[in-house]
Specification:
Helix content is 78%, strand content 0%. The chain has 2 domains: 62 residues, no CATH class; 186 residues, no CATH class. Helix 1 runs antiparallel to helix 2, helix 6 packs across helix 7 and helix 7 packs antiparallel against helix 9. The longest helix has 33 residues. It is built from 9 helices and no strands. By secondary structure, the chain is mainly alpha-helical. The chain is globular and about 70 Å long.
Amino acid sequence: MNNPPHVLDLLDLAWAFGLIAISIGLLQWQRVGLAGQMALAAARSILQLLVMGFGLQIIWQLNTPLVTVGGICAIAIATTIAASNRIGDRIEHLLPIVGGAIFTGLIVAVGYTILVVIKPTNWHEPQYLLAVAGICLGYLLNNTAVAGGRLISEIDRHQAEIETHLSLGSTPAQAIASYRQVAIKSALLPTIDTLMVAGLVTIPGFLSGELLADIQPVNAAGYQIVVLFAVMASNTIAALLVTSGITNRYFNKYAQLQSIDKN
């Protein structure tokens, strides 16, 4: 019979601070200049993770659809704001575009995963719904930010070529297609790379967590496969939608390329 997973206490966490202290000491010794930033990042992570831990504990105890879905929506809204900030503020009403992409990708991928693949007794059980949604949102933050930011950069660099295509009779979608494809590829390649090396040169985070929770390795690997596929689906949907939404902002009703800079 396997031993139950070890429950960390305050002393264990205090000893863990030694790892950060070693890192800060090494940076200070080599005069890299990141010691202060690392200390600040460590302090922020402690505060943020403890707050999230207590919040999730409340959701676990209540275990109601309203609370579970509300918690996911709160995290998704924070993800939307963070992704929009990374893209920049040049486009007006960017938040609805990013939010629509993130929420759509999340709902489709997580809904399919929970209702078709995992099929728990109660669909709103936080141990499944929050776990899958939380991991997808972590990837969606970078995915939408990269897709949106890269598309804006590509259009800015190739305005003359786009206008040439338009003058030769191309539709806006045709004129911008290659640059949108570049943006989508840039956003999805990191996730594809993760799929390529998962289980080969790395033990993915979800699988590691399952092992720490004393789940049988083969079952843990199965759940990791499900989660990675959910991430891939949500990222693909979100990348397609966010680039489509931003593309539409670049053209007026006469199919003319226009400036998106705020007045």
